[in-house]
Structures are given as structure tokens and as C-alpha cells.
Amino acid sequence: MAEAAAGARLDAALLSVRGDVALVATEDGTYSLTISFNPYRFRKHIKRTIFRIRRVIQNTIWPLTPTIWGGVTTAVIVRVVTAKSGSWWRSGSLANILWKWDNLFPWQQKLPTQVRVGWLSLLAGTVGLAGISFVQRSLLRLLLNYKGWMFLDHGSKPSPMMKLWFIAVRALSGTQPSLYTYQGCLPSLPVPCLKETTRNFMLSVKPLLSQEEYNDMEEKMQKFMKNEGWKLQLFLQVRAMFTVSWLWEWWEKYVYLRGRSPIMVNSNYYILDGVAFTPTHLQAARAAALLHAADKFKFLIDWEKLDPIRLQKTIPWCMKQYERVFDTTRVPGKECDHIIHYDHDPQRYCAVSRKGVWYKLPMQVKGTNGKWRTALPHELEKQMNWIIMDSDSTPAPEGQNAIAALTGWHRGRWAEAREEFFWDGINKLSLETVEKAFMHIHLEDRSPTDLTNQAKMLIHGDGKSLWFDKSVTFIIFPNGKSGMMAEHSYADALTVGHMWEWVTTEERYKGGLYRDDGHCKGFEDSKYEQVDLTKPQRLQWRVDAQLHKVINEAYVANKQLCDDLDLVVMTQDTWGKGFIKKKHISPDAFFQLAMQLAYRRDAGKRALTYEASVTRLFAQGRTETVRSLSIESAAFVDSMMDESCSNVERVKKLMQAADKHTQLYKSAMVGKGVDRHLFGLYVASVGLGYDSEFLKAALKMPWTLSTSQTPQKQTEGRWNPDREDRHAVSAGGGFGPVADDGYGVSYMFAHDDAIYANISSKKSSTATSSARFRDHILRALEDMKKIFSDGSDVSAKSK
User: Fold this and answer.
1) Which residue has the higher pLDDT, 141 or 30?
2) 298: nearest Cα among 249, 264, 341
3) Domain 263-395+410-541 CATH (choose: 3.30.360.10, 3.60.20.30, 3.30.499.10, 3.30.559.70)
4) Which residue ranges make up each domain of the chain?
5) What b/e readout covers 688-700, taking b as 16+ CB neighbours within 10 angstroms?
6) Is 771's pLDDT higher than 70?
7) Largest alpha-carbon pair distance within the chain?
8) What is the pTM of this model?
9) pLDDT recorded at residue 713
10) Hey, CA dihedral for 499, 501, 506, 507, is it positive or negative?
11) Which pLDDT tens digit goes with each residue over 449-473?
């Protein structure tokens, strides 16, 4: 029996908590069983259950609504009941069919005729509306399978047929959709054509491989196509027929959850707050406001009030990833992790940490009227201040202050430690408290010195303070700066970035959440309701010598990983996407080509390049790879390296390469990418027992450049980063390098005159330097800008 601190009267206790039932067994052999009942929680649970049932019905019959159903069926009943017996309503062909239905229910024969007529009218109206709804949803799903609109050139006018398609989609989409309204109307992710995938793959590696290597790869590809290729393709096609997405489950499991490497740096990512804007310099106030805003966003998700994203305000995206933004944790396993999403809890709380001390902060307070309500920002600020004072006055004991280091460790080792030291007692109780929290707030006790230092503190901290298994962690610094870190398996950066943008704009939206002195509005203000607050619960841990040794081992490993990360934030604030768009070039393509040129100068060779795209035009869509290295991009880089090449020729090749990149990006978005298809074929080959040389060779090629564009302006109408809100733009976010001798680059076009990039690599690699690569990118951007100026002299020599 494990010992646990359980109060002054209990020297040791075993705590087993299941919902509202608590069993306490003391050393003297007595037991205490406590069953608690919370009326507030019960009412909220019933309300939530009713809401879910109603939403299931609404989303099933959408675009019809219960109001429309009630109105139409009532009108039908009244019209039929009041009609004369010889009218069409009573004796027409449709009426005769309904009277035949009446024979299917013998119990109705004893009812009055008018009641039977009313019942059959209700049944007919319901079936008719259900049929109309089914046809409308099917037509919308059929229309959404069309993706030709994606390939319309920027600035070009759509054809009459395309205009008609847009009109039809808008007409069938209904009005006032909820968060998951369109989920049942989205088409399934298609299985790409095998010949197209292999052809596009070979084109993508042609600039990278020598002729001998290319011929060898082509020979393996031809062998694959003649033998196991078509069988694996057939398997994927059959799988696609019986699943919403043939890829979703495999991608989550084999790419993320089965990975045994630490998720710190290797899998997680971070997002920075405003570069030149900090709404308050009070740490407690900033933490309270961000937490309050996150809770509001969670409310929009839980009650499906968040508007679904629609491209061009017409074409819906899959919103499934939003289900697990909050109330989610990743649990380690010896061979495979798993994700747990805790259901909506009306007594929700947040896990808060500072200096290694962990707290349970309730998000509900009892108002002066005796009713429970959500805590307001000024109330949360008081709680944050108390946590800061408590952690300063009573620091965490040695060992307990580094519990979180286990979550950044090797996944198998963390699973073993969890099984050995956290299976019962106070450790289990505290662990469950952290994991069931709707999110994690970390109050850092050090302020960042610059953007680069801030980025490093967000992605890994000190290696022992951040709970890397939690879906979302907000980090707030003493000077009021902030940022966030996210676990990657449950959702992609586009989804979490949307949440972070909404939260940070909420701080200043419609008057904002702060007073002029930096405190949250209502802080110690008699004009606001002042209630007695229950102090946050300080979590306890039992750390014996053996667990202390394991924690220290995890921290040492984490520290090595942190120290090896070479991270730099690049700032280019003299020009940006405004100039690029004037040249009729995609800003994304322009920056991708700049990175190709920069890497050529940095390493003297080309790099297999990964750029993340999205496939959320399909149900349960996640990401697809854009292979940015192409024959066209290689030709452009060669022209920049050739001093004898004219600027006119360079511009021509740049335009060709940019057009090619845009085509590749759009193809990836519509499900015609290469890499997810190859991944699916490989998983199928392993499951079916095929040993494919081609798939192994294709998938083992390292992504020397792993890149992604950080999304922005996903919150329509809340801010304008290109104009009045320029001062509040972020420098984006970043992630660790994928290859040991490669770079990870996440970039953002903050506004028309600013470009930021978060560049990562490993210090242990002699081939890379993030600062050097940053300089090469800046130089490449300037050189590419110069070629549009007549008479400019562009030096293409590598320094």
C-alpha cells in the first residue's frame, strides 16, 4: 500500500477517486467512503446531454431546422385535417398511399378519423422533409467534390459554369451554420491515382539524385508498379469505401503516437505573441486575461457556436480537429501512446504551474446571489497573484519541482515511470488532476531577452516545467510577454493557431480586458461584483529516492536536447508580401524559392523540401506535403548562381518556378499529393506482408528542409494586421528540425511590409547553423527583389 499525505489526522492514506466517489483506507484498517452530489454539476450535465441530443438531430437533418420541421408539419396537418373528404388532400394518389400506410398500424383503427388523418399527415410531412434534406445534403456533397475552382488563376474571372457552381453551393449551404454543421456534407479524402503519384514522385527527386541514383529509383518504381503496387492500391481503395478517411487513424497512430522519441522539440510547436505589443506588463493580469479568453473559446467549441471556416465564405472546411483543442492529453505507452479527451465538465479547471509547484485553479465561482458562474478576468488575476506569492513563499521540494520533466522524456521511459510511480496514491490523484485540466498555464519566473530567447523558452522551457503531454499550454512571463506551446498529435498548427489568434485578439477586442494601469477591468473595483474566492488547490507529490533518481535522469536528457537546439527568429521588416503581390507572385512560393536559394548557398547542394499543406476540404482532413524542390525551382536557383545569367532570364525562371509551386500546393490541397499516398501504401504493405524496396527507398529520404507557413487572419472581422493592427502582429511560431543535419523553418507574412521566420537546427550538426541560414535567407530575399529592378547587379556567388 502506497503512502500519501491526506491531512493532519492521517499519517498515510490510499486515495482512490472515481468521479464523485472517494474511498480512503487508513493504516489502522478502517475505511471511509464518501459519495458527494453536486446539484450544479448535475444540472449542467443534464443540460449538456440534452444539447448534444438536439445537436445530433439538427446536424442530421440540416439544412432543415426543428423550427422549419415544426412549422411545415403543422401546416400540412392543418391543411389536410380541414380539407373536404373528396379533395385531393384526402383522396388523391398521395393520400391513397398514406391510407395504405395506415394499415401498417392496426392500433390506429380504433382512433377517430381526424386523429388518424393528423397522424398520417405528420408522418408524411416528416418523411417528405427528411427526403428533401437528404437530397440537399447529397447534392452539396456532390458539388463539393468539384475542385476546379482551386486552379483558377489569381485575378481571373470564373467561367459562367463556375459561377453557377458557386451559386448552387451557397444556395444549398443554408444559413447560420454551427461548428460541425457541414461535417456530414464534406467529401471523403480520395485515394490518388497510383500512376500519377509515382510519376510526380520521380519528378520531385530528379533535381536531387544523380543520374545513376535516379535510374536505380526508377527501376525500383517500375518493379513496384508491376508487382505489389496495384494490390496495395486496391487495398486503400477498399478501405476508403468503409471509412470516413482512409488516412486519419493511420496518420495519428503511426506518425505521432507510435513515435518513441521525446515529443519536446521533436514533435511539439510554439507560437509567439505580439512582437512590439504587450497589452500589460503585469504577469498575473496577462495570465488571467488569456485564460479567460481561452475559456470563452472553449465555450464556443463546446456549444458549437464557433463559426465554421469557409473559403471565400462559401466552401466549408473540416472542423473535426477543434473537438480536442481543450480537455485533451497524450498518455504515454511502452510501444504506443494514446490520446484521451475528457468530456465537457461543468466544474472545469485549469492546471497552473510556477517554479515547479502545481495548482488546480477552478474556473467557476459562486456569485453574491448564490449561483455559480464563470470566473471573470479580475477574479482570475487575484488567483494568479496568490499562486505567485504562494510559490515564492513555499517553493516546491527538490524532486517535486521537476515532475514535468518526465513528459519531455523518451516516451517508453516515461510510460515505465508512470506505471511504477503513478499508479496509486497521491501521485495518481495529482497526475489525474493535471491531465484532466482543460489546459495548462505556466507562470514563468524569467523574462525573455529577445524573440529568439522567448521562442526557446516556449518550445522547451527549462526542460522540467512544461507539461508536454497537455494539448495546450500558455506560458506567461514576468514582463507580460506570452506565447503558447502545443502537443501535435491531436491537431495541426492551423487549428491551434486559430485559437491563439482569437484569444490574443480578445484581449483588445471591443474595448479589451485591461485598465490603463495594466490590471484586468474590475480588479479591486467596487463597481464590479466582489466575491470570496476559493484558493487554488496546491497539488502534492510523493517523490522517494527512486523516483527522484528517475526524474533527474529525465531532466538531464531533456537538458541535453534543449541545449542542442539551435533556434533563431528572423526579422525582415522593410518590405514583405505587398511587394511580392505587386509582381503577381504567390508570397508563399516566393519565400520557398528564397529558401531553396539560401540552402544552395549554405550547403552547396539541393535539399529535399517539405512544406505542410492542408486537406481540410475533405472530411477528417489533416495535412499533405508540398514537395517544394522541383525541376523549375532548381532551374531558378541555377540562374541565380550563374553570374552570366541576365535578370530578365532570372525573372522568367522565377515566375515559372512560382507557378509550378502554386500548382503543387493546390494539388496537395485537393488530395493529389504524393507523400500521404506513399505513406498509406507503405502501411498497407507492412500489414499485408509485402516487402517493397521502392516504398522503403522513397520514405527513408530525409527532409533536409522542413517548412511551414504560420497562418494568420483566421478571425474574420476581429482585427486587421495590414492596417490599424500592425503593431500587434506576431512573429509566428516554430518547431524543431526533422533531420539531424537539416533545418526547420516556419515563416509568417505578418503584414505587407514584414516577414518573420523561426529557424531551427541542431548544434551537434557540423553542417548547419541557424544564424548562418537566416543570413542566407535574408540575402536571398534581397537578391530576388533586386532582379525586378532594371540595371541592378545581383551577385550570385556563394560566400
Assistant:
1) 141
2) 341
3) 3.30.559.70
4) 41-185, 263-395+410-541, 573-670+702-713+722-791
5) eebebebbebbee
6) yes
7) 98
8) 0.90
9) 85
10) positive
11) 999 999 999 999 999 999 999 999 9
DSSP 188: P
Quote the pLDDT of residue 7.
36
329-368 residue pLDDT tens: 999 999 999 999 997 665 689 999 999 999 999 999 988 8
The amino acid present at 75, given as its one-letter code, is A
Phi and psi at 486, nearest 5°, equal -135, 145
756/748 Cα distance (integer angstroms): 5
Q: Which of 488, 519, 661, 677 is catalytic?
A: 488
Alpha-carbon distance of 412 to 113, in angstroms, equals 71
CB 135 within 8 A of CB 142: no
Residue 750 backbone dihedrals phi, psi, to 5 degrees = -65, -45
Q: Which residues pair with 328 in a beta bridge?
A: 341
pLDDT of residue 457: 98
Alpha helices in 642-769 (DSSP H): 647-669, 675-688, 693-699
Q: Which residues contact 747 (CB under 8 A, 6 or more apart)?
A: 591, 707, 708, 709, 710, 732, 755, 756, 757, 758
Q: What DSSP state is assigned to residue 472? A: E
Q: What are residue 359's DSSP bridge partners?
A: 352, 538
Return the SS3 of 511.
helix
Alpha carbons 281 and 503: distance in angstroms, whole number: 17
What sign has the CA pseudo-torsion 638, 639, 641, 644? positive
CB burial class (10 A; 0-12, 13-18, 19+) of residue 673?
A: buried
CATH superfamily of 573-670+702-713+722-791: Chloramphenicol acetyltransferase-like domain (3.30.559.10)
d(CA 473, CA 476): 10
DSSP 8-state code for residue 514: B
Cα-flanking dihedrals φ and ψ of residue 688, to 5°?
A: -95, -5
Query: Band of the pLDDT at 75, cuts 50, 70, 90?
Result: confident
Q: Does the pLDDT at position 388 exceed 70?
A: yes
Q: How many CB atoms lie within 10 A of CB 660?
A: 18
Helix (H, G, I), strand (E, B) or coil at 325: coil
Could you give the CA distance from residue 48 to residue 218 in angstroms, rounded to a whole number?
A: 57
Q: What is the crossing angle of helices 113-144 and 39-61, to 10°?
A: 80
DSSP 185: G
Domains 263-395+410-541 and 573-670+702-713+722-791 share a fold: yes
Which grid coordinates are listed for 615? 486537406
E strands within 138-209?
none
Whole-Å CA distances, 672 to 192, 432, 554, 665: 6, 42, 42, 10
- Round to whole Å and give the CA distance between 283 and 519: 10
Cβ neighbours around 327 below 10 Å, total? 23
pLDDT for the residue numbered 335: 96
Q: Which three cell numbers stand for residue 254?
A: 503511426
Task: Give the strand pairing for 440-443 and 349-354.
Answer: parallel
What is the rounded CA–CA span in Å between residue 327 and residue 505?
22
Q: Which three cell numbers stand for residue 334?
A: 511502452
Residue 632 and residue 663 in contact, taking contact as beta carbons nearer than 8 Å: no
All 3 cell numbers of residue 132? 428533401
The string of DSSP letters for 480-498 reads S-EEEEE-SSSS-HHHHHH
Alpha helices in 507-586 (DSSP H): 545-564, 577-582
Q: Is the pLDDT of residue 28 over 70?
A: no
**Is 488 annotated in the active site?**
yes
Contact predicate 673/192, CB 8 Å:
yes
Q: Is the pLDDT confidence value at 300 over 80?
A: yes
Planar angle of CA 480, 435, 489, nearest 5 degrees: 85
Give the helix/strand (H/E) hosting 567.
Answer: strand 565-572
C-alpha cell at 171: 444556395
Angle between helices 647-669 and 631-641 (to 10 degrees): 150
